[in-house]
Specification:
Layout (H helix, E strand, L loop, with lengths): L23 H8 L1 H18 L5 H22 L1 E2 L7 E2 L1 H42 L2
Helix pairs in contact: 1-2, 2-3, 2-4, 3-4
């Protein structure tokens, strides 16, 4: 804020956005209010799975479902396919997907890594398909 000739005690704060634009996180949260809730819930389910015993097949299936849900939210709610060389992914969306990657290896070892690699491949494939239409 420029304080020259301004009463600092009563001056309104200037918005942090530039030219009235909202940051990506705010725009995403307003446009897809349920997506963030869904992604946070998937991370909580991962944490719940971490403390439970399940067979390797059940664990793998659960992780595939979690990662598929996260991947769908990234693809359908976090991609900007406006004309450019590559699609852009909003960090506000991808941050949950990235955290899930870290937790997969930390919590579930090789099973988590394999499930994560499947989700990564699926995201790559969907991005390539979606971007081919633009």
């Amino acid at each position: 804020m420029n304080t020259q000739n301004v009463n600092v005690k009563t001056a309104a704060q200037e918005p942090s956005e530039r030219y009235g634009e909202k940051n990506t996180s705010q725009r995403w949260a307003e446009k897809y209010p349920d997506a963030e809730r869904i992604m946070i819930r998937q991370l909580k389910i991962m944490e719940e799975l971490h403390g439970m015993y399940s067979s390797p097949d059940e664990l793998a299936q659960s992780l595939y479902e979690i990662f598929n849900t996260l991947t769908d939210r990234v693809v359908f709610n976090g991609i900007d396919n406006s004309p450019s060389d590559k699609p852009k992914i909003a960090y506000a969306v991808a941050q949950y997907w990235i955290k899930a990657q870290r937790l997969a290896a930390e919590y579930f070892g090789e099973t988590g890594v394999v499930a994560w690699e499947h989700a990564r491949y699926r995201l790559h494939l969907q991005l390539a398909i979606n971007h081919s239409y633009h």
